[in-house]
Amino acid sequence: MSRSFAFLSSSKLRRAGVVAAACAVALATSVAVTGCGGGTQSKKFVPTKILSFGDDTSYLNSTGQSYTVNSVSINSSGAALKSDGTTVTDTPSEMVYYCQNYPIWVQSVAAYYGFDGEQCPISGASRKAFFLANDPGTVATDASGAINATNAATAATNAGVAKVIQTINANLGNMDKNTMVLVLAGQPDVLKAYADYLAGADASTLKSNLTALGASLVDNALVAVGNTGARIVLLRIPKLRLSPLGLAGTSTTSGNGGDTDQGVLDALAYAFNEGMTNEAERKFDGRQLGLVRADDLTQTLVTYGSSTYSLTNVTTPACTTALASLTAPLCNSSYVSGNTSGMASSTGGSAFLWADYTHFAPAGHTRLYNLVMTRIAAQPF
Fold first, then answer.
1. Among 54, 68, 169, 378, which residue's Cβ finds the most Cβ atoms within 10 Å?
2. Rounded to two decimals, what is the model's pTM?
3. Strand pairing category for 331-332 and 69-70
4. Is pLDDT at 17 greater than 50 in this prediction?
5. Distance of CA 227 to the CA centre of its chain
6. Is the preceding peptide bond at 329 cis, omega within 30 degrees of 0?
7. Is residue 261 a contact partner of residue 249, using CB atoms and an 8 Å limit?
8. What pLDDT score does 325 carry?
9. What is the pLDDT of residues 262-291, one digit of tens each?
């Protein structure tokens, strides 16, 4: 017997959006989602296509695998199965993946409008979503969850803001007034800065650089997007201090500048977010750009996860402790005891906030999607 966890299907495309939007209303009561001049839509904006840009949090490879827990066919014991449906395997390349299950946030936004992308086809959907996030090639940590300077530098080179700006500008010709553009970028740059700080770099200089980098995303890419008439949904990066990586950092004063590691990681992410947000507020109003505060969402989910959002674990990774992969897919939905490529718990996909040390698990992506839809519904596009 095999089973997987279905989320997106042709019969559920519209229904999923309705349910998520209803959930998002409740979520918005406890999360600040102010967006450059928020309000209500006198005439609801309905895109004819969606383009998404960013880094690992929004990335799908050519077969729909992503930087989170990825759904595979499993038996009643939680063991992954080969394509014959009966033979057990712990080798990821032998497993049967279902990219429609455990969707990342950009897939869910697209599915709300009845769209899919070439990486993960959905029966009955229109091929009107273009998932264009850059692949970092690796997470910023090592398999044990510690920040790794080499990995962090590689990720920032491949999927940092500079690369995202290039990708956005290369796709301006595919945008018009009926396009919705989703942007979530900057996490690889912040994690590289954190690695640099741990290696001795000055925290104040790093913060200044990140503030300027956040502004550059707006000035060097989003202004051009705005000139096409497209509507933009811009996300602040999550609150990384509350990730398993952040929680592992010392909360006592360190020798580098008299700051705590947790405090510096928090300040670095905040510096990037504020640089981006402030510039967006200078260059746009709410008719064309909506801001989603994924950092506030992270705080809310950590604070109220178990009592309000059915998250039983907001501090440790859903993937097994020694990650089998540092790229997409991070791990799979098998949970049999002793697995090396799956989850540490059968509830890893539904009740954990984090997949690894810096990336949302599927439940985190669902809550992020809910928040995005709340912003879109309220924005006067």
1. 68
2. 0.90
3. parallel
4. no
5. 26
6. yes
7. yes
8. 87
9. 999 999 999 999 999 999 999 999 999 999
Decide if 240 contacts 191 (C-beta within 8 A).
Answer: yes
Site of tokens 């718990």: 345
Both tokens of 120, joined, read: 């993960």
* Burial label, 258 (beta-carbon count in 10 A; 0-12, 13-18, 19+): exposed
State CA 294 to chain mean position distance.
9
